[in-house]
Design brief:
By secondary structure, this protein is an alpha/beta fold. It has helices at 86-92, 95-111, 128-137, 180-192, 218-230, 242-251, 264-273, 281-290, 302-316, 336-344, 349-363, and strands at residues 14-23, 28-30, 32-37, 40-46, 56-67, 69-74, 114-119, 145-148, 153-154, 175-176, 198-201, 203-206, 211-214, 235-239, 255-258, 276-278, 380-384, 397-402, 405-408. Bound molecules: zinc ion.
């Protein structure tokens, strides 16, 4: 029997999954299986010990079963910049068009094994992430569970399509707000309309030289964090400069997005304050190629070489690394690109997989997922081969389970 609205198969009450091995979010276990009851994980352990009397058994020979992956930095309302520039997406695309695209992005994300996304800003599409999340949660369209940031916060004049006459007011990429009262109002308004997390741009390219410079003052950032925190919500910061990162860390932002210009001193400060880094290496790699770099043929541009160095410094400082690629800059469903690049840039496959599961769950305060443990949500992905040995196996998705429902058989 099928649910006629979504076409999804009916939930079986008990399913015993028998892969070759289980990555539980922290460690790999050969010969383990997972018993799912309804929408939760009932038991996990050596397959021979799991009682299967009343369960449908699904054999996953040759496969590894992992927790549903958690994308830490997505923009479901953007599509790749080599298709349409960011400026044109913000300025020229009708909202209905952007939402129609986003429904496809959501489906592709889920089918790639990503059962949760932290979606960090609608980029000019107001609160459309809130409605998208509702449609997914109600089973109207397939997609990942969403943590949404809604519009995100920017200092006036900093994050907008560039190159226009100062006499013209163009739409911004996020909500402009400055100073004590207006910032408090903006944070509360975003929360009231559905924000699960507050995102700020602590620096951005602006002004005559078009180089990244800090935007909000330290006091403004502290105020944003305080107001968000009093409602139980974290604040996260886009920051690529030393000073932007420093202010965001000291203000209490929980994750730094990008962090390209980080130094050993800044990463030591992140470690001290337990601020996590979401390095988004795939986005820089993608935009460099959009600008003409022929990867694999030409030497790496300076930006990429510097990113390799700063990422290594972050690892050496022991900074917690989130997995998040800034997907939307590149194609939704191609989220694994960031996992491959984290490994290319110096993480072990097992560490990168921890980032995409248990580490992201911990950093994003998601206590109901990110690991394969009794009582947690039955969000699972099965891939051909062993991605802890060769990360490329993470692309060979053979089955996705969300809330105990098999989405991709
Ligand atoms: Zn982003």
């Amino acid at each position: 029997m099928e649910d006629d609205r979504t076409g999804k198969p009916k939930i079986a009450s008990n399913i015993l999954f028998k892969p070759d091995r289980v990555f539980d979010g922290e460690t790999l276990h050969e010969g383990w299986g997972v018993l799912v009851k309804g929408e939760k994980i009932e038991a996990v352990g050596p397959a021979a010990n799991l009682r299967s009397a009343e369960a449908d058994v699904i054999d996953l020979k040759g496969m590894t079963l992992l927790p549903g992956l958690i994308e830490g930095h997505s923009h479901l309302l953007l599509h790749p910049y080599n298709e349409t520039t960011w400026d044109d997406q913000v300025l020229k695309e009708p909202r209905a068009y952007r939402i129609a695209r986003a429904t496809v992005h959501a489906r592709n994300t889920l089918r790639a094994g990503f059962t949760t996304v932290r979606d960090l800003g609608t980029e000019g599409a107001d609160y459309d992430d809130v409605g998208l999340k509702q449609a997914i949660d109600q089973g109207i369209i397939p997609g990942p569970r969403m943590i949404v940031a809604t519009r995100a916060l920017i200092a006036t004049g900093s994050y907008a399509p560039k190159g226009f006459s100062p006499d013209v007011d163009v739409p911004q990429g996020a909500e402009e707000a400055d100073g004590h009262d207006r910032l408090i109002q903006a944070v509360r308004r975003q929360i009231g309309k559905g924000a699960d997390v507050i995102k700020v741009y602590a620096d951005y390219r602006w002004g005559l030289m078009s180089e990244a410079r800090p935007t909000f003052t330290l006091d403004e950032l502290k105020l944003i964090v305080e107001v968000a925190r009093s409602s139980g919500r974290p604040t996260v910061a886009h920051a690529t400069t030393v000073e932007g990162m420093r202010r965001a860390i000291l203000a209490g932002c929980e994750t730094i997005e990008h962090g390209d210009g980080g130094t050993p001193e800044i990463f030591a400060l992140m470690k001290e304050h337990a601020t996590a880094l979401c390095p988004t290496v795939a986005a820089g790699d993608a935009t460099s190629q959009y600008r003409g770099w022929k990867k694999g043929v030409e030497p790496e541009p300076e930006r990429i070489r510097n990113k390799r160095i700063s990422f290594k410094q972050a690892l050496e400082a022991g900074v917690k690394i989130c997995f998040g690629g800034d997907v939307g800059v590149f194609a939704h469903g191609d989220n694994a690109r960031e996992l491959e690049m984290l490994v290319d840039y110096g993480m072990k496959p097992l560490e990168a997989l921890r980032s995409a599961t248990s580490v992201n769950a911990d950093v994003f305060h998601l206590t109901d997922r990110g690991r394969i443990r009794p009582g947690l949500l039955a969000d699972l992905v099965a891939v051909e081969g062993d991605p802890t040995k060769s990360i490329g196996a993470i692309r060979k998705v053979r089955m996705v389970v969300k809330s105990g429902e098999i989405i991709k058989p």
